[in-house]
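User: Assemble these into one structure.

Assistant: Restating your components, then the assembled model:
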Amino acid sequence: MPEPTPRLHTERLSAFFGSTAAVKQVTLAFPPNTVTAVIGPSGCGKSTFLRCLNRLHELSRGGRVEGGVWLDGTDIYDPDVNPVAIRRRIGMVFQHPNPFPTMSIHGNVAAGLRVNGRLSRADTDVAVERALRGAALWDEVKDRLRASPLALSGGQQQRLCIARAIAPAPDVILLDEPTSALDPIATQSIETLVQELKRDFTVVMVTHNMQQAGRISDYTAFFYLGTLIEHDVTTKIFTAPSEERTEAYITGRFG
Amino acid sequence: MIARPLRRRLVSRLMTGLTLVAAALALLPLFAIFADLVLKGASSLNLEFFVATPPAAGQTGGGVANAIVGTLLIVGVGSVLGLPVGIGAGVYLAEYPDGRFSSLVRFFADVLNGTPSVIAGIVVWTWVVRPMGGFSALSGAVALAILMIPMVTRTTEEMVRLVPHSLREAALALGYPRWRTTAQVMVRAAWPGIVTGGLVAVARIAGETAPLLFTALGNLNFKTNLLQPMQTLSLQIYFFATSPFDDWHRLAWGAALVLMALVLLVGVGARYATRSRIRNA
């Protein structure tokens, strides 16, 4: 498969908590309109790696980053780059659904739009509907857009968070184990959704579920102890990995 | 086989009983006070009590209209001065919990919280009353604000800290700047709790007497000028209760009942704010 120009890539990216390195010298590229799964055992640095991609890691206590992350040719760690502007171009969905409890369903989806600048009420409504349809939630909530998001089920809340993330039309969507708190049926709907998201976005998804990585990703990156062990087309990783540690993890011999 | 469970049941009964007794003992003074106030104060409550000023010494009739209005004014101005500072400081402590400045502020807030209220009165007398050349309602409000700030600071800090960290990350990941994350997500989520804490502090200062002795001083006439001495219910009770006249004692009981009712009203408001928070969650 020929490598398209990456939308997002990292170069020798390291992330620290204080003096402890959680991610070590990772160089990785994410081609546009693909889903890349980041897998590895707990504590391997995959979530920390993801949080470096939208400059969230540096807000953690003792969080520090070395190396570079490039988004469409811009080094997002350049001192002239405003991290807030970067986060508006890179949406994120977290492990546990975290809708804003003080805002309505509509308000949650509109939150990222409002912060991007003034939109007319009509334009906001159009964008909210588009995002909710994109997150396959519109039909379930169209009659109660002003209701509290806490009235939704966990799976619906997570799709609401996806709608909130895609509403401002970012370039990249980061998903941090988005289904680990959900039941199998909700998981399935999120997985289907992720497949559709790649039409419009570059998707990077951390997961501890290898079957999930195999089902929905185009590329898979295997992390172990903060180091990128192997990165390749998903089918190759799952059928003929080059690294012994990858094979051991995938076949369930450790992790 | 049977002995241990029986013993456990007995110990459990005993401990439950002890906590029940403790709870009853804790409630007893409240009911005793309220019953006493109603018994001795309710008879003084009539229209005149709410619209008239105190009678001259030894005379009958009269009311505490000046003290009711004075309490509302001084507590109102004190809250306007104290609540924004306290809430602002509390939000700062919750959002920047680590710095040396924060631990300093937290430490002084705790010290101030434990400071006897009479000291706030003396300090304000030195800072405000003397430079301004006389006692005033405004200086009383300043003293009450000083008492209120540390209480509101700590409750606000606690409330903002209770907001889940995941909401902050959600906002930041959406591209919210720091200040908008704080104001529109964290403080908004904590707001019902902040309001409750504020109302509890308002109720606390409404009953303060000592800091007003050196500041608002008290006034037997009806005044609404904040730059002059002004009466409050608490001062009225103090003056009348220590006077030798039966009729003033009667008014003091009535004033105590009204003050208690006002504090209770604010307390019910605080409960209401808390309730609505639980219902939403």
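Chain B touches chain A at residues 164, 166-167, 169-177, 180, 185, 188-189, 191, 280-281 (CB under 8 Å).
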